[in-house]
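Q: A reviewer asked whether we had any structural model of the full assembly, not just the individual parts. We don't, so I'm hoping you can provide one. Inputs are below.
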Amino acid sequence: MASVTYEHVTKKFSTDTTAVDDLSLEIRDTEFMVLVGPSGCGKSTALRMLAGLEDITAGEIKIDDQVVNEMPPRDRDVAMVFQSYALYPHMSVFDNMGFGLKMRGSTRSEITSRVKEAGRILRLDQLLARKPRQLSGGQRQRVAVGRAIVRQPRVFLLDEPLSNLDAMLRVQTRIELQKMHQRLGTTFIYVTHDQVEAMTMGDRIAVMKDGVLQQVAPPREIYDQPVNMYVAGFIGSPRMNFLPVTISDHKAKASGLELNLPKAPGVEHGVLGIRPEHFLPNVSETDAAIDLKVEVLEVLGSDQYLYGKVGSDDLIVRVDPQLKVDIGDRVRLGLDMQRLHLFDAGTEKALF
Amino acid sequence: MAAVARVKVRRPGTGRVIGDRFVGRALRIYLPLLVMLVVTLFPFYWMAITSFKSASELFDFSVSPLWVREPTLDWYRHLFTQTNFPRWAFNTAIVAIASTLISLFCSILAGYSLARLRYRGADTIGWGIFVTYLVPPTLLFLPLTFVIRELHLFNNLWALILTYPTFLIPFCTWMLMGFFKGIPRELEEAALVDGATRIQAMVRIAIPLALPGILAAALFAFTLSWNEFLYALIFMNDSLVKTIPVGVTQELIHGDEFFWGELMAAALLGSVPVAVLYSFFVDYFVAGMTAGAVKG
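A: Here is a predicted structure for the entire assembly that you could use as a starting point for your response.
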């Protein structure tokens, strides 16, 4: 169990490619921290620097209060689950899981008992003698997790551990990993490009883009108060609608909509952000409203999505699946003013 | 699918098509194969039957030379009792095994480091090694002769054990580099995080996985050392330190007099170990060659 601190950490692969740019992040003891962002945003590099697999160009990484910049990976007492699982193909499941303990000089009997215990937790008891190539994808993934937990490390690092699983298994394993975190009470640092995994698993989420940390907050806060258009668009599915508006004092005007803002933002050009789920089916006299011209319908059973246009802007709206709508219809919907976001069109930062 | 297949079989003339196909296949594949087989195996056949012919039969041109009438082991007996052949075979084995082991040790370390460790100039060194391999031994033997003389190693098996790696290491390194590059980096990274040192990760993860490549490199090195002629000819003058290729050509041919029986017996025995090794490891060898070629 340990805390992890990144202090102004930068990683350059060459003079003109910066993978991680001045990252400062504190991960608390026993926390489940998710680093999320598109591929190439530096999240994996940040994790690999912590594991000791990449040199740090500038800044410091600490585990508890100890700076680990120059410490070889084996002395950091972290365990890592790789996206490809990286199971040793020439070793049995048992030897794969016991490898770390063996390297650390544990006795044979201790290795056996710890591997058996982990095997039991992960339902691998029957498979310990097999080689990795004789396992299914889900089993391999569990061996990779097992190899990490038998070590009882201070910090768990997971680099996209679910992305090679099919959709159903991914959901199931996601839940198992959360249970594992609760049971072990260890710090987890989890890297993913999937915002659903981030939202469901993280105690806190760190959103990264182009090597720069955008926002760190609990899932609710990331969803409710994104600091900029990037975070607002990345978290949430379908993504938030963005409508360019011109503003004069309290009034914001888009191509097909005009509304009174709760306060004057003090900019001329803004972008109005509203999530598909934050439209109101019933419009009262005082609410701001839109007329959506429906172009495509998606009925998913639990939800119904309308894709259409307001003025010249595209819009996605989630409505009650019972609502009878046809393509070509004009649907009048209210805007939930409490959930409305406004961004500065130039800096893309959130104004409210 | 089954229904479709049945329809096809019933179609008239199908039998003829199959027959034509068989003939075509025989003409295109098996006939050229047969020709090639005969061409490559004939010298071995000639070598083998000559070694079992008696002296009188060897030079009797009235009968077909393609068969042995009265097989005899005289030449073999003669080879083992009247010449230094047993000693040559022993020397060849010692030199081939020692230089193979030395070359493998160096090439594994060099190939691994060039494939894995990101140090300044690694690529340049890799290409340098490849270029070294392209330098022909006929160019190198003069400077090497000087070195061997300075080391006082003439007529000493060490002269060969130390010079063979000069051409074995570059090739083996290049080949193993390709193999190590083919092993996912993450496997070793996992080992490092798991608590292994770089050397432990290499010994426990990379080397076991590169074993086919290492075997192929070993086979290649062994064969080259076993058959090497030029350096052995220059550095070994004393009959007792000669290797098979040199001993056979120098001592079983006197001027224009060829001792055909002994020559062929010695050549046959000399090619046996290599042939046996190949038959065991041919799959590895092919895998090794292609992996080195594609991934290098």
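A: Points you may want to mention in the reply: The first strand of chain B starts at residue 253 and ends at 254. The interface with chain A takes residues 184, 186-187, 189-197, 200, 204-205, 208-209 of chain B (CB under 8 Å).
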